[in-house]
Amino acid sequence: MGADRAARPSIGWAWYGLAALILVSLIGNLIKYMIILVSEPIKLSLSLSDTQIGSLNGLALTLTTAIAAIPMGWLADKVDRRWLLAISVAVWSVATAAFGLATTFPLMFAFAMGIALGEAVLGPITYAMIPDMFPRDKWINANFIFYIAVLLGFAAANWASGLLLAWLDGHRIGLPAVFAGLESWRVAMILCALAGPLLIVMLLAMRLRPLAPQVAVQGDVEGVMAYCRAHARTIIGVFIGFGLSYAAYGAQGAWIPVTLQRSFGETPATVGQTLGQISMVAALAGVGTSWLAVRWLRPRFGDHAPMLVAQGGLLIGLLVSCGLPFVQTAAHLYAIIGVKTVFTIVAMSLSPAVLQFIAPAHMRGRVVAVGGMVTIIFGSILPPFIGFLSDSYFHGPSGILHALSVVVIPAFFIGLIVLRWGSKTLPATIAAASGGDD
Q1: What are phi and psi for residue 41, nearest 5 degrees?
Q2: By the 8 A CB rule, do 64 and 113 touch?
Q3: Contact (Cβ atoms closer than 8 angstroms) between residue 100 and residue 193
Q4: Please, are residues 403 and 259 in contact by the beta-carbon 8 Å criterion?
Q5: What range does the domain containing 262 cover?
Q6: Average pLDDT of 4-21?
Q7: Do the beta carbons of residue 227 and residue 371 sit within 8 Å?
Q8: Percent of the chain with pLDDT over 70
Q9: What is the distance between the alpha carbons of residues 312 and 322, in angstroms, rounded to a whole number?
Q10: Mind listing the pLDDT tens digit for each residue in 226-285?
């Protein structure tokens, strides 16, 4: 344990590393959100169906990440994580620029898969690196800081993306010749890709605790699947409970901008700015509520406290979701999304801590990858399914909202029930995984 402390970088380098991870995650998430935000202009530009838009946001962006999650998690436990993440940033930057230039749906789908492939390493690396940079008693606080910084930065970027799209719409004539003739959404995607080189330099400057070869070998012998079988109820409950709930929230996020534009006449710029402002307030309220609740409950429930708080957040989020089918105005929908986001963040800001507590240090990257893969599989299915329901059964301006409701509400409910079921064996799993962490 003493050697482990000595190998860990100084606290100053730990905070620098956390800042670099925050910025990388922010840009990666922004690129995916930009695609969601401009889904309606893309649909009009390429004459796509809702099923194709759902496939772009679901299958191309999320299923690819699910397929790549396990090998990326394995690599995250084997190689220099700085270089792995830097290469991934390069891949998604090139794919993002190419996405902005694509003129057919197959090309756009392929480049979206490239973006997802590059971003597949984010989850396994980020949540495996935080315990390597910080001692155990600082994990939850480091996770909170990471989560709130990404959310606030992302919300600010969403707001800025709305301003950017509005500015591009009004200044297309004065743009450089290289952008001449390109639609605003295409220029925005290319601009997002330009952050890649700076991120790569920041990542390569990080200092990390080196991986221990003997521990890695032990992880290979024991195997992630063997560990999951030994703690099946906890693993199933955590992975499926958080995964399905988060996927339902993500599917909602994928279709809400489209709903606001199609059903209530909002512009992409207005949607981006308004949702950005809502997200900033919800992020502060959600993480603040989560932090206070964990601080209050942890003296009594220990490492089980994050799970209890997460369940409470999901329950309230589920109750708020029940208002979706009755929305009549854009303001009403914004209000529901705002309140639901607060309590979903209460839960989701604690899911990394739960994953870290149930994962042994020598296989943390792979365990986190499996959990992420489950979330992503659900996330790849729900958006296109909502699009299919909209195309096939729910027609008219409000059809997409009704399709959204009949998918998101049951998924949230099932996720909460499964998470509650799995929490019964959580303390034993945490005890089994905690050896060697300081």
Answers
A1: -60, -35
A2: yes
A3: yes
A4: no
A5: 2-433
A6: 74
A7: no
A8: 90
A9: 16
A10: 888 889 999 999 999 999 998 999 888 888 988 998 889 888 878 888 888 898 888 889
Q: Over the range 81-91, which residues count as b (16 or more CB within 10 Å of their CB) and which as e?
A: bbebbbebbeb
* 282 in any annotated domain: yes
- Which has more confidence, 398 or 425? 425
What CATH number should be reported for the domain holding residue 283?
Answer: 1.20.1250.20
Cβ-count burial 280-304 (b if 16+ within 10 Å, e if not)? bebbbbbbbbbbebbeebbeeeebb
Per the CB < 8 A criterion, the answer to whether 386 and 403 are in contact is yes
What is the token pair recorded at 208?
Answer: 């990390």
The dihedrals phi and psi of 49, each to the nearest 5 degrees, come to -95, 170
Using the 8-state DSSP alphabet, how is residue 105 labeled? Answer: H
What tokens appear for 146 in the block?
Answer: 């990471």
Q: Is the pLDDT of residue 381 over 90?
A: no
Residue 254 forms part of a structural domain: yes
Q: Rounded to whole angstroms, how far apart are CA atoms 134 and 438?
A: 9
What span, in angstroms and rounded, lies between the C-alpha atoms of 158 and 280? 10
CA 274 to chain centre: 20
Tokens of 12: 């100053």
The per-residue pLDDT for 1 is 44
Tokens of 279: 């997200």
Task: Specify whether the CB–CB gap between 254 and 57 falls below 8 A.
Answer: yes
Among candidate residues 132, 126, 120, the one with its CA nearest the CA of residue 211? 132
Does a structural domain hold residue 438?
no
Q: Tally the domains of the chain.
A: 1
Nearest in space to 383 (alpha carbons), one of 31, 34, 60: 60
What is the rounded CA–CA span in Å between residue 386 and residue 317? 20
Structure token pair of residue 93: 């930057």
Tokens of 63: 């299923």
Encoded tokens for 194: 């330009």
Cβ neighbors of 258 (< 8 A, separation 6 or more) are 39, 40, 53, 400
Please report, as a single letter, which amino acid is at residue 393.
Y
Q: Which of residues 232 and 127 earns the better pLDDT score?
A: 232
Closest CA to 24 of 146, 168, 145: 146
Q: What is the DSSP letter of 324?
A: G
Residue 35 lies in a domain: yes
**Model pTM above 0.90:** no
User: What DSSP string describes 377-398?
Assistant: HHHHHHHHHHHHHHHHT--STT
Alpha-carbon distance 24 to 12, whole Å? 19
Question: What is the band of 422 on the pLDDT scale with cuts at 50, 70, 90?
Answer: very high
